[in-house]
Design goal:
This protein is α/β, with parallel strands linked by helices and 579 residues long. It folds into 3 domains: 2-92, 2-Layer Sandwich (Gyrase A, domain 2); 127-272 and 338-378, 3-Layer(aba) Sandwich (Rossmann fold), CATH 3.40.50.620; 393-571, Isoleucyl-tRNA Synthetase, Domain 1. It contains 21 helices and 16 strands. A 5-stranded parallel β-sheet has the order 7-6-5-11-12, sandwiched between helices. Arginine binds at residues 131, 134-136, 171, 173, 327, 345, 347.
C-alpha cells in the first residue's frame, strides 16, 4: 500500500537527516503516471523541506538535492535514488510494489483501501454536520439545488469515509411570506384532489397563480399577509394547512432523492427556528448589539470601524424576522443539539455574503465555534433544460437523464441481456450528470450539455460506469479462476506497473479533496484510472493466458475495479455491474 512505501522512505530520510519521520511525509508524494515510460514512484520536494525547516534554507536547492540523493543508498525497499529538478526521486523494487499494492485485495479489505493512510492522521475526526439541497416548498427546484444536493452528498460521503460521524441535513425553505401567499392562494386556486395526486406540481401552479394575482390585486395581498400572520401566531387552521404542504412535499422529495442516491438524517427547515429567531433578536438587543436604523429596521453593525458603514438587517420594521435571523437561530440550536465539531453549508455563490455575515454575527455573539463553520459555494449552471422546457422539478431532470441514456443504450447488444435496463439507464444517466458537475472547480459556472455528458467515450460518467461494468464482467466470466495467492513477478509490464503507481496516489487524492472539499481531484484520478485500465484490457489479456498469468492479471483487474467502485461511491455514484 502507498502508506507502506511512504513510511519506509520517510524512515530512510529520517535516519539520514536525523529528523522525525513525520517531517518528511508532507514533502513526499507519488509521481503521477505519464504516457512515456517512467521509473520513479515517489518524489521528495526539497523546497518543501526547506520551508519546513528540515533542511537549511540557504544555498542552492539543486546542489542540496544532489548531495542528499547521493547520501541515500538503495536498500531492500528502495531500488534507486536520483536527483531531479529540486527533487529527489525514489524507485521502489518492482516486485515489492506489485505485492504490497495488491495484497489488501485478497483479504477482503478492498473497501478500506487507502483510507488508513498516515496522511489522514492530522485530520481531526469528530461530528460533521453537512447541510445541503435545502429547496423551497412550492418553488422551483433549480439547478443550484441540484448542485447543492450532489456536492453536499459527496462531502458527507467523503467525511464519513474518513471516519467522521456525519449528520446529513436538509434545511427546507418552509417559512416566510411565500406561505402567506400559498395559504391564501390555496383557498382560491387550490384543489385537494390535484394536490394529493401531484403535490409538487400543484403547489407550484398555485404559487405561480397567486403571485400573478397579487401583483395587481390588493385584496389578495392582504389575504396573504393575514394568512402569514395567522401562521406566525400559530393559529391552528393555518398551521394545519401549512403542515400538509410540508409533509407531503417532504414525502415526495424523499422519493426523488432516493432515485438520486441521496438521503438525509434530518429534514429541518426555517419554520423550526421561528420562535428562536425572536429570542436571538432579544439577546442581541439586551447586549446592545442591535441598532435601530432610520427605516425602523433592526440591524447589526458589521463595519470594522463601528461606523455603521456595513450593516445586516435582522428585523423588519413590522417586527418580523428574516432569512438570516432564522439562520442564526438554526446554527445555535444545531450546535446545542448535535455538538458538531464542524458544520458545512453548501449553496451557490450568490449566498457568500449571507454566510460570511452569519458567521460574523455568531462570532460577535460570543459563539467561538463559528470559525468551525464553513460555506462551500459553487457557480451557476446555464441551460439546464429538458425536451419539454425549463426544469421545475428534480424529477424532470432524472426522467430526462434516464430517457436519453436508455436511447443510447438501445443501440448496444448487452442491453438486451439486462434484467432492468431502465434502472441501469437511470443510474448511468445520473453518473453522467454528477461527473459533468464535478469535473471543474466548483466555483466555476458551466453550461449544461446532455449530449456531451452522455458520451460513452471521453471523460464522462458513462465512461466510468462502462469501465466498471467491464471489469466486473471480466471477473464474473473468470469466476473461480481467482486465487488467494498470486505471483507478483508476473505483473512487471509497464502497463501493470502504471496502474499500481497510479493507485499509490489514491490516498493523496482523497486527502486533497478532504482539504479543499473539491471533487475534481477524485474525478480526474478515476478517469485516469479508467484510461489505464483500457490499455490493460488490450495488453494484458486474461483469456488464453496460462493459469498463473491469468490469476495475477485478474488480481490486478479486481483491484482496479474495487478502487474505481470505492471512489465512485464517495462521489455519490452507484457503480453498475452490467451495462
Ligand atoms: N432555501 C435556500 C434557497 O433555496 C437555501 C438554504 C441554504 N441554507 C441555509 N442555512 N441558509 O436559497
Amino acid at each position: 500500500m502507498a502508506c507502506f512505501f511512504r513510511r519506509r522512505i520517510a524512515a530512510k530520510l529520517s535516519r539520514a537527516l536525523q529528523q522525525p519521520e513525520e517531517a518528511f511525509i508532507p514533502a513526499l508524494t507519488a509521481v503521477p503516471v505519464m504516457k512515456k515510460q517512467q521509473s520513479a514512484d515517489f518524489k521528495l520536494a526539497v523546497g518543501t523541506l526547506r520551508v519546513g525547516g528540515v533542511l537549511p534554507s540557504g544555498g542552492d536547492v539543486q546542489l542540496q538535492a544532489e548531495t542528499l540523493a547521493t547520501q541515500l543508498k538503495p536498500d531492500s525497499v528502495v531500488e534507486d535514488v536520483s536527483a531531479g529538478r529540486g527533487l529527489i526521486n525514489f524507485k521502489v523494487h518492482r516486485q515489492l510494489l506489485v505485492q504490497k499494492m495488491l495484497e489488501p485485495f485478497g483479504k477482503g479489505e478492498d473497501h478500506r483501501f487507502g483510507l488508513n493512510s498516515e496522511l489522514f492522521n492530522h485530520l481531526k475526526q469528530g461530528t460533521t454536520l453537512v447541510e445541503y439541497s435545502s429547496p423551497n416548498i412550492a418553488k422551483k427546484f433549480h439547478a443550484g439545488h441540484l448542485r447543492s444536493t450532489i456536492i453536499g452528498n459527496f462531502i458527507a460521503n467523503l467525511k464519513q469515509a474518513l471516519g467522521n460521524n456525519v449528520i446529513r441535513m436538509n434545511y427546507l425553505g418552509d417559512w416566510g411570506m411565500q406561505f402567506g401567499l400559498l395559504g391564501a392562494g390555496f383557498g382560491r386556486f387550490g384543489n385537494l384532489e390535484k394536490f394529493k395526486q401531484n403535490p409538487l406540481q400543484h403547489l407550484f401552479e398555485v404559487y405561480v397563480r397567486v403571485n400573478k394575482e397579487a401583483e395587481h390585486n390588493e385584496e389578495m395581498k392582504q389575504a396573504a399577509r393575514d394568512f402569514f400572520r395567522q401562521l406566525e401566531q400559530h393559529e391552528s387552521s393555518a398551521v394545519s394547512l401549512w403542515q400538509q404542504f410540508r409533509e407531503i412535499t417532504v414525502k415526495e422529495y424523499r422519493h426523488v432523492y432516493k432515485r438520486l442516491g441521496v438521503h438525509f438524517d434530518v429534514y429541518s427547515g426555517e419554520s423550526f427556528h421561528q420562535d428562536q429567531a425572536r429570542e436571538v433578536v432579544q439577546q442581541l438587543q439586551s447586549r446592545g448589539l442591535l441598532k435601530t436604523s432610520e427605516k425602523g429596521t433592526g440591524v447589526v453593525d458589521l463595519s470594522p470601524d463601528g461606523d455603521m458603514s456595513s450593516v445586516c438587517t435582522l428585523l423588519r420594521s413590522d417586527g418580523t424576522t428574516l432569512y438570516i435571523t432564522r439562520d442564526i437561530a438554526a446554527a445555535i440550536s444545531r450546535k446545542e443539539k448535535y455538538q458538531f465539531d464542524e458544520m458545512i453549508y453548501v449553496t451557490d455563490k450568490s449566498q457568500e455574503n449571507h454566510f460570511s455575515q452569519l458567521f460574523q454575527i455568531l462570532l460577535n455573539m460570543g459563539h467561538s465555534w463559528s470559525d468551525r463553520c464553513r460555506h462551500v459555494s459553487f457557480g451557476l449552471v446555464r441551460g439546464m433544460k429538458t425536451r419539454t422546457g425549463d426544469v421545475v422539478f428534480l424529477e424532470d431532470v432524472l426522467d430526462e437523464a434516464r430517457a436519453r441514456m436508455l436511447r443510447n443504450m438501445g443501440q448496444s447488444n448487452t442491453t438486451k441481456e439486462m434484467d432492468n435496463p431502465e434502472d441501469t439507464a437511470e443510474t448511468v444517466g445520473i453518473s453522467a450528470l454528477i461527473v459533468q458537475d464535478f469535473k471543474g472547480p466548483l466555483q466555476s459556472d458551466y453550461k449544461f450539455d446532455w449530449d456531451r455528458m452522455l458520451q460513452a467515450q471521453g471523460d464522462t460518467g458513462v465512461f466510468l460506469q462502462y469501465t466498471h461494468a467491464r471489469l466486473r464482467s471480466l471477473i464474473r466470466r473468470n469466476e473461480g479462476a481467482e486465487a488467494a495467492t498470486f505471483d507478483p513477478s508476473l505483473l512487471l509490464e509497464q502497463t501493470s506497473i502504471g496502474i499500481l503507481q497510479h493507485l499509490l496516489r489514491y490516498d493523496e487524492v482523497l486527502n486533497q479533496s478532504a482539504q479543499d472539499l473539491q471533487p475534481k481531484h477524485l474525478i480526474s484520478f478515476l478517469l485516469k484510472l479508467c484510461h489505464l485500465v483500457a490499455s490493460a484490457h488490450r495488453e494484458l489479456p486474461v483469456k488464453g493466458s496460462s493459469q498463473d498469468v491469468a490469476q495475477a492479471r485478474l488480481r490486478l483487474f479486481s483491484a482496479a475495479g474495487s478502487v474505481l467502485s470505492n471512489g465512485m461511491r464517495i462521489l455519490g455514484i452507484t457503480p453498475v455491474h452490467k451495462m
